[in-house]
């Protein structure tokens, strides 16, 4: 099995709501990926301060450091689609 960045099960259209893979029939997590990976069509791969719902707001974890192009572990997408 190959290791890939960003191809985790959380980004795969085969992930079901109960965190089971509909292809392999096993419980998975964000650490898993496989050769049957299919990227969700609505996912945008642009996580940074300007695409964060908390940017320049009262819930920003790093208001003194936040800037376009940066990312922290508190990033929240402005628009989420299922």
Structural category: little secondary structure
Number of helices: 0
Q: Beta-sheet strand percentage?
A: under 5%
Largest sheet: none
Mean pLDDT, as a whole number?
Answer: 83
Helix percentage: under 10%
Number of domains: 2
- Tertiary shape: elongated
End-to-end CA span: 28 Å
Q: What ranges have pLDDT less than 50 throughout 5 or more consecutive residues? A: none
Cα-atom Rg, whole angstroms? Answer: 15 Å
Number of strands: 0
Please give a structural write-up:
- By secondary structure, the protein is low in regular secondary structure.
- It has 2 domains: 1-42, no CATH class; 44-82, no CATH class.
- The protein contains no helices and no strands.
- It is elongated.
């Amino acid at each position: 099995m190959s290791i890939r960045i960003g191809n985790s099960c959380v980004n795969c259209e085969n992930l079901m709501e109960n965190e089971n893979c509909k292809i392999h029939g096993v419980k998975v997590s964000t650490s898993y990926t496989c050769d049957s990976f299919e990227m969700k069509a609505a996912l945008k791969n642009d996580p940074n301060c300007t695409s964060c719902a908390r940017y320049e707001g009262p819930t920003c974890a790093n208001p003194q450091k936040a800037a376009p192009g940066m990312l922290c572990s508190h990033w929240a997408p402005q628009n989420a689609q299922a």
